[in-house]
Amino acid sequence: MLLSAGEAKNLGPSSGPNRLRDLCTFCTISLDQEEVYRTKVYEKSVSPFYGEDFYFEIPRPFQCLSFYVYAKSMFQIRDLPIGKVAIRKEDLYKYCGKENWFQLQPVDPHSEVQGKVHLEMKLNELITENGSICQQLVVQIIACQGLPLISGQNCDPYATVTLVGSDQKKTKVKKKTSDPQFDETFHFEVTRSSSYKGRSHFHVEEEDIEKLEIKVELWNNGNLAQDVFLGETRVSVKILRNDNAHKAWYLLQPKGNGTKSKPDDLGSLRLKVTYTEDNVLPSPCYMALRNLMLKSPDVKPISASAAHVLGDICRESVGYDALLPVVRLLLHHNRLLPFLTSVAALELENTQFKANTIFRGNSLATRCIDDMMKIVGKSYLTVTLKPVLNEIFESNKTCEIDPVKLKEGDNVEVNKENLQGYVHKVFTSITQSSSSCPPLMCDVFRSLRQLASKRFPADPHVQYSAVSSFIFLRFFAVAVLSPHTFQLRTHHPDPEISRTLTLISKTIQSLGSWGSLSKNKLVRQLLVRRCAEGTKLRCVHVIFNREVHKRAQGRKRLGKKNFKKRWLRVTNQELSYHKQKGKEALCIIPVKNILGVEKLEESAFNRKNMFQVIHSEKPLYVQAGNCVETNSWIEVLSQVSRCNPGRLSTFHPSAYVGGSWLCCTETNESTPGCKPCTATLLANIQLDIDCDRETERIFSFFSSSRSRLQKMEDACAGMSVYLGQQEECSAFTIQDPKETFRTIKELGEVLDDLQAHHDSKGALTDEPGTM
């Protein structure tokens, strides 16, 4: 879902003529009653311009999308609700993709409901003790689903059942659940007419039936506090006229079915909502399209690939949003790095401007790299920025240095010191974060450096500006400015902290702008090089050291091989072992020469807790003190060497002994490994990617742009016939018309086949049942 909170207009007071004049306002976005986003706080305006976009996947079923406008005052303990806009899920299609002004409605606690209740109703015939016959209405409260959280916790719900005009009956309280299972039955005697004579006349008078209804209310048990209304539903007994039993799900409604008097004029809110649902088919249906997308990094030229074609044809309609599922799909299959390298090379090839302006615009390459950093860099930002951002939020020191914006009593020198202190802490955290930089980001930055240097060989600084465009301007600076977007903070900061973050972010941006301050070039070079090489270059940093048992290397093939105690030490630059701690190194292996670090099978030397360091010479076999130390060594060594060029993709899990590998019996010692390496590009990245859903999203984007795909096909045909660039081709990137034409024809066949699968399955819905 893509939401754009544009602006509010003429926000009105809930009481008093000027109540909002001195209040700040903000807007929240909720799925049912669960807040998922909120905007910044805007100062003292009854017509604030929010201008914020929110894109998110909806992780659960929902009934209503709501926008609440609140007033915030330093004298109020709780935020004051001004009004809301609520759009039911089934009505979203009416507003999809269009900007609309919505009138704010009052926020009534009894109207804030969500969830549904499962009911069964029956009419039974009973003979009383005196022999007369009466009708009995049987109501079973079966279950509820999707009840709201109360103060962030599951509620303690119970239900009340009332036949209008009779006593109220109540279920037991269910503890701490939003999906209670009641399975309780209640009986009500229904008054019958005196004209009743037999089974064929088993009914109530028509005029009486219209008046009878069952009311079911859901409440949260407040224990010592007041119970909270959760919603109600009313069902007329006349539903049983044609059938003596009825069973259905009912959406909970506001109290009194939402009847309310005409509200005061609370103002209006301008919104743009884009909501899409994906009907995901069985996995085999997506195999052809998925394979076509995964083949993209290998297509030459890259502009003829299916992934690049998708970005080309969707550029005018949805910008480069269509590339996000492509990035996620390629990332899951370890195919993202070669694709990013190819599209970056294409952009550099077409760059005609100065070297210090590369990767500054919004292009297919920059958008893909942006999406990659947001996906794999979340934990990196958390480790690097969250501690210092928490300090900024909690200390809340004033940092305003603009004389025009200074408040009465502010001291600009003190504010300047506060700002310098914050900037120093943020920048220090960034420059010391290279060991936490995800391996994929390191690899991408290294590729950018190499590509930029090749494209502009006369500019020695271009390799750094290519990376600084991303690491400073598009990553750290953006995260500092909007920490809530990267889940570094729960909500938007208040206006004063927001101003502080803006000043810090501008400073970070100036460090990333290569032409801003020449004295910052050395600092930028240092950080860029650290991130691209994945190691700190400023000093030798001891990371880990322990006493181990090392298998002697032996200079001759038949030399004595045994295990000796050694002191193993790793820094950011080298791995070395010593006879004792503090003694001179007996052997030094540069970190840059490490090609892999893996566990060694116990059967190799009949020893536990073994691991091997694979480098340019013979493997180093080490026995750690215990299993925990073994894992620590592997983790540390993998971390410092993760960005080395030439890392192995396979290894031998056992040793080469007696003229053959014990694991695969190969006799050639240089034979490639027989088992995949465990350290991959996705190491330390916790991702939950549904490839079928991502492929369905790709299919949706292609389907909505089939006309553009046809125009691109026609452009390729025209270029092949007329042997040149035609006017209609300028909207697309077509380097090789024949190869691009071939890809488009293959795409058309795959898309038609997938559409046929959708047509055979029919439209799928998740409606909650009979209402």
UniProtKB/TrEMBL annotation:
<dbReference type="GO" id="GO:0008270">
    <property type="term" value="F:zinc ion binding"/>
</dbReference>
<dbReference type="InterPro" id="IPR001849">
    <property type="entry name" value="PH_domain"/>
</dbReference>
<keyword id="KW-0479">Metal-binding</keyword>
<feature type="domain" description="PH">
    <location>
        <begin position="541"/>
        <end position="642"/>
    </location>
</feature>
<feature type="domain" description="C2">
    <location>
        <begin position="1"/>
        <end position="102"/>
    </location>
</feature>
<keyword id="KW-0677">Repeat</keyword>
<dbReference type="InterPro" id="IPR001936">
    <property type="entry name" value="RasGAP_dom"/>
</dbReference>
<dbReference type="GO" id="GO:0035556">
    <property type="term" value="P:intracellular signal transduction"/>
</dbReference>
<dbReference type="Pfam" id="PF00168">
    <property type="entry name" value="C2"/>
</dbReference>
<feature type="domain" description="C2">
    <location>
        <begin position="113"/>
        <end position="250"/>
    </location>
</feature>
<dbReference type="InterPro" id="IPR023152">
    <property type="entry name" value="RasGAP_CS"/>
</dbReference>
<dbReference type="Pfam" id="PF00616">
    <property type="entry name" value="RasGAP"/>
</dbReference>
<dbReference type="InterPro" id="IPR008936">
    <property type="entry name" value="Rho_GTPase_activation_prot"/>
</dbReference>
<dbReference type="InterPro" id="IPR035892">
    <property type="entry name" value="C2_domain_sf"/>
</dbReference>
<dbReference type="Pfam" id="PF00169">
    <property type="entry name" value="PH"/>
</dbReference>
<dbReference type="InterPro" id="IPR011993">
    <property type="entry name" value="PH-like_dom_sf"/>
</dbReference>
<dbReference type="InterPro" id="IPR000008">
    <property type="entry name" value="C2_dom"/>
</dbReference>
<feature type="domain" description="Ras-GAP">
    <location>
        <begin position="326"/>
        <end position="513"/>
    </location>
</feature>
<dbReference type="InterPro" id="IPR001562">
    <property type="entry name" value="Znf_Btk_motif"/>
</dbReference>
<keyword id="KW-0343">GTPase activation</keyword>
<dbReference type="GO" id="GO:0005096">
    <property type="term" value="F:GTPase activator activity"/>
</dbReference>
<dbReference type="InterPro" id="IPR039360">
    <property type="entry name" value="Ras_GTPase"/>
</dbReference>
<keyword id="KW-0862">Zinc</keyword>
<keyword id="KW-0863">Zinc-finger</keyword>
<protein>
    <submittedName>
        <fullName>RAS p21 protein activator 2</fullName>
    </submittedName>
</protein>
<dbReference type="Pfam" id="PF00779">
    <property type="entry name" value="BTK"/>
</dbReference>
